[in-house]
C-alpha cells in the first residue's frame, strides 16, 4: 500500500467529476469506499473537502490517502493491452475529455469503431459499458479507420449527438491529422482535390481516384503541410480533410506520390526504397487534434497523444513532437 499521494489534475481532465477522476486513476476503488473517504475528508482537492460530483480543474492537486488498490496504467494503449482489458477499463484509459454532453477518446490503432466482417470487438459495442441510469448509451458521431489512432468524439445524449453530427456535416469542425509519408512532397503545403469511388477487392473495400461524373464518385478535398523531413526519405505531414470520405487522407497521400508509411492498403512496396529500420510496418496516421462546437456553446479543443508505434518512430527519427504543436497554434 502506497503512502499519501498528491496528484496534479491534467489539462485533459478539465471539468471532470471527482468520482470519474478516481475511476480512471484507481479503477479498483469501489463506489462505497470512495464515498467513505470523501465523507471523512481523507480525499481533498487543493486542501479542501469535495463531494463525488465536484468538478476538478487543471493544475488542482488531489490528495489521495493510502489505498489498497492498484493505480491505473496511463498513456496510449499498446496492442496486447487491447486483448486483455475489460471494456470499462479500456474506455477509461482512452478518455481525453468528458463532460455532461461529450466524451472524447484517444482511439488506439487496430481497434475498430464499428462492427463488420472479422471484427470481434469495437468501440460502439464497448460503449454499452457506459450506458447511463436512464438507459442512454453514448453515441458515435463520426468515424476513424480501424488502423488510424487518435481523437474520437462521442455524444452522451441524443440532443448532443444531433448537434455534433450537424457540426461534422456542415464542416464546422477542424480535424488535424499527423502522418509520416514516403519521400518529401515538392510543395511545402498544398490542397488536394479529387473524386473518389469505392471498389470491392479481395482484401475488402478500397478507394480509388475517379473521373468527375463517374457513377458513385464523391468529391474529396484535403490540405497538407510539411512539418519536418528526414533527409529526403520521409516527411512528417500535418493533414486536414475538408471533406470526410472513406480513406480520404490515405488515398490523397498516395495520389501525390507520397503514401503513408505502413499503410496495408495503399502503401505499395518499391524495390528501390528501403523501409526505415526500427520503424514498425503499421499505419502512421493519427487524428492529433479536433476543434468542434460544443453542444452547450463555445468550442471544444482536444489533442490526442501519439500511439506507441508512432511515438517510437518519432523518437527513432529524431522528430520533435513539440514542433508540430507549436506550428499549429
Automatic annotation (TrEMBL):
Keywords: Isomerase, RNA-binding. Gene3D superfamilies: Pseudouridine synthase (3.30.2350.10), RNA-binding S4 domain (3.10.290.10). It holds the Pfam family PseudoU_synth_2. GO terms for molecular function: 23S rRNA pseudouridine(1911/1915/1917) synthase activity; RNA binding. PROSITE patterns: PSI_RLU (PS01129), S4 (PS50889). It comes from the Bacteria. InterPro entries: PsdUridine_synth_cat_dom_sf (IPR020103), PsdUridine_synth_RluA-like_CS (IPR006224), PsdUridine_synth_RluC/D (IPR006225), PsdUridine_synth_RsuA/RluA (IPR006145), RluA_PseudoU_synthase (IPR050188), S4_RNA-bd_sf (IPR036986). The keyword Transport does not apply. The active site is at 145. One of its GO terms (biological process) is enzyme-directed rRNA pseudouridine synthesis. Residues 102-254 form the Pseudouridine synthase RsuA/RluA-like domain. It catalyses: uridine(1911/1915/1917) in 23S rRNA = pseudouridine(1911/1915/1917) in 23S rRNA; a uridine in RNA = a pseudouridine in RNA. Its EC number is 5.4.99.-. Responsible for synthesis of pseudouridine from uracil. Belongs to the pseudouridine synthase RluA family. This is Pseudouridine synthase. It comes from Gellertiella hungarica. The lineage of its organism: Bacteria, Pseudomonadati, Pseudomonadota, Alphaproteobacteria, Hyphomicrobiales.
